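Q: Could you write out the predicted structure for this multi-component system? I'm mainly interested in how the pieces pack against one another.
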Amino acid sequence: MTNVSARPLRVAVIGAGPAGVYAADILTKSNEVKDGDVEVSIDLFDQYPAPYGLIRYGVAPDHPRIKGIVNALHKVLDRGDIRFIGNVTYGRDLTLSDFRHLYDAVIFATGAIKDARLDIPGADLEGSFGGADFVSWYDGHPDVPRDWPLDAKEVAVLGNGNVALDVARMLSKHADDLLVTEIPDNVYQALKRSPVTDVHVFGRRGPAQVKFTPLELRELSHSRDVDIVLYPEDFEFDEASDEAIRTNNQVKTMVNTLANWMAEDQDTGASRRLHLHFLHSPVEIYDSPETPGRVAGIRFERMELDGTGNVRGTGEYEDYPVQAVYRAIGYHGSELAELEYDVHRGIIPNDGGRVLDAEGKPVPGVYTTGWIKRGPVGLIGHTKGDALETIGCLLEDRDSLEPADNPDEHAIIALLEERGVEYTTWEGWNELDAHERALGEKFTAESAERGTTVQRERVKVVPREEMVRISRKNAG
Ligand code: NAP
């Protein structure tokens, strides 16, 4: 065994979303590194040609404050002490043995981008969509088809989390009001043609049990020409609700927001409506003789609160004629080659970030952080806590790590080149970033020529081949 401490610790982080960048950053700033006890050399991989993961492919484009996070992540990667290597897919381009061969430790930060399954009849009908898939589409994810069938006038969105809010807002907003954002042109064109008039958001529990956050909820009322519609019969509160309202400021604020919207007359005669329903549990998505195989409506069981904040069925059912259903009931992680996987939770089994084998024992030198470590809950900043814990474990284990056979920093590049992998780099991302910004400037200039004043900071490039081509244009 070679002595790892005689040379920099070679660490690979797989996943360049916030979780991966935070982990890499925290490692470089750890006391052990600052005090000079440990030197590190970190490579940050991503399957996409661009960094930032869910920030680029999961956050709604009309959330500009997210730019603050992008700027912070940019600063970390721009320092030059963490090497970005994009367009490399774990399990296809590189295996776990490759990583073990070239690195002393590997951290999986692959997140969760798939939709959780909804097991009710009709969930697979045409017109029933995963909320996460829709998010990927409107965020210009390179591996999602360019076209999205937006032909429904009435739409149901299932779930009472922030993704349901994003999906409902994106479906109900007028496309022209999204032009100032980064939406790709194909997304703008499709939204522009959408005939939608009514978007219904359904929660299975009550107004005090929503999983929204206050800012995101309030934002719903900012859409132009969209009225919010609420229903008095859905405003049910049990003991647990009262307790939550008393003790949790977020719950109190959101219940007040909803109650105020209901008290004020929200009917301004807008051309689109966004309905918020509570105590509706989906039981079946159905088609009709006129539209066999296609969504024609959705049936809910009316629920009632049971005193603990949970719900039970009342045996009463209600049907809503809709032509599309978006299932925004949570994300789910994806299985990774050569690692154990908890199918139920969609995570890599781990103990505080140490990846576990089938017997529940830590796999030496293999760690995890972010949503693939603890499941898809929490805001972006919460992954910092995860990363701290994981990096703590890695540093604790450092003396017992099995050293890489070939820790040379050039070895990974040589291997990727040998395998013909068109990897991208930080310099490549800067090229693509500049290209997307230039597209934004061009649009702004053309809009000024047409006498409109739409300012676009960026227009995202969507096809993977084009992203790779632009990123690699200066590659040797
Ligand atoms: P989430 O917050 O866990 O919400 C999932 C929703 O789906 C809950 O209302 C849940 O109801 C409901 N649900 C689950 N299974 C269901 C079923 N079988 N039938 C009906 N409803 C069902 O998940 P998310 O919305 O995907 O968000 C994931 C994380 O990302 C959250 O932490 C969220 O805050 C964050 N996020 C933040 C933003 C932002 O702008 N700040 C944007 C997007 C996402 P129950 O509560 O009854 O289980």
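A: Regarding packing and overall arrangement: The two ends are 36 Å apart (CA to CA).
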